[in-house]
Amino acid sequence: MKAFFTNLANTDLDKIIACTNSKGREFRYSVRDILTHVALHGQYHRGQINSRLRAVGIEPVHVDFIRFVR
């Protein structure tokens, strides 16, 4: 990943990548959109886990990024 980001130019962020989902439907995304998705997707799942923990009476862990960098 370090090499990828080191070699990534600003103009690369707007390049379009085509991909196909498991149902055969094609989508087109910019590199910027894909990187944003990668950055945010894990947070989505951590929220899901904490929601399920709360539902069964368990106090969830803190998942805010700022808590990890303190």
UniProtKB/TrEMBL annotation:
Keyword list, A-Z: Metal-binding
Pfam family, any one: DinB
Domain of life (superkingdom): Bacteria
Alphabetical list of PANTHER family matching this protein: DAMAGE-INDUCIBLE PROTEIN DINB, SLR1116 PROTEIN
Family: Belongs to the DinB family.
Name of this chain's protein: Damage-inducible protein DinB
Organism encoding this protein: Brevibacillus ruminantium
Lineage: Bacteria, Bacillati, Bacillota, Bacilli, Bacillales
